Amino acid sequence: MAHVVTDACVRCKYTDCVATCPVECFYELENMLIIHPDECIDCGACVPECPVEAIYMDYEVPEKFEKYIEFNAVKSKELEEDGVEPIIDVQDAHSEADQYKEVVGKFELI
């Protein structure tokens, strides 16, 4: 089991969650963050830190966001294989974060 980043992170990409994570399991895509399921230790520290409530345990992901379980797994493993390092420090949010903070379910996966 692992935590999963879902739709609410798209075009927000707040990184408050990264700062509380005791392991290096977050990876950065252009428009969102993802969690590597093999690195996540299921501690839950990231969940309350996400200002847009985009992180769930994989077995608690709402049905409409279930595609994000596979998306996080596949994309994080691709990045790892390509030699991309996980992010470990807080970074600036996406430039459109404030505009899209309340928008959920409107984006296609990249």
Q: Termini, distance in Å?
A: 23 Å
What is the total number of structural domains? 1
Structural class by secondary-structure content: alpha+beta
Tally of helical segments: 3
Helix content class = 10-25%
Mean pLDDT: 89
Strand neighbour order, sheet with most strands: 1-4
What Rg is obtained from the alpha carbons, in whole angstroms? 12 Å
Strand % is 5-15%
Describe the model.
The protein contains 3 helices and 4 strands; from the N terminus they run E-H-E-E-E-H-H. It has 110 residues and is an alpha+beta fold. It has a single domain (3-88), classed as Alpha-Beta Plaits, CATH 3.30.70.20. The two termini are 23 Å apart.
Summarize the structure.
Helices cover 22% and strands 11% of the residues. The chain has 110 residues and is an alpha+beta fold.
Give the helix/strand layout.
Blueprint: E1 3-5, H1 16-20, E2 26-28, E3 33-35, E4 55-57, H2 67-81, H3 97-100
Antiparallel strand pairs: 1-4, 2-3
Descriptors:
single chain; 110 residues; alpha+beta; Alpha-Beta Plaits; two-stranded antiparallel ribbon; two-stranded antiparallel sheet; 3 helices
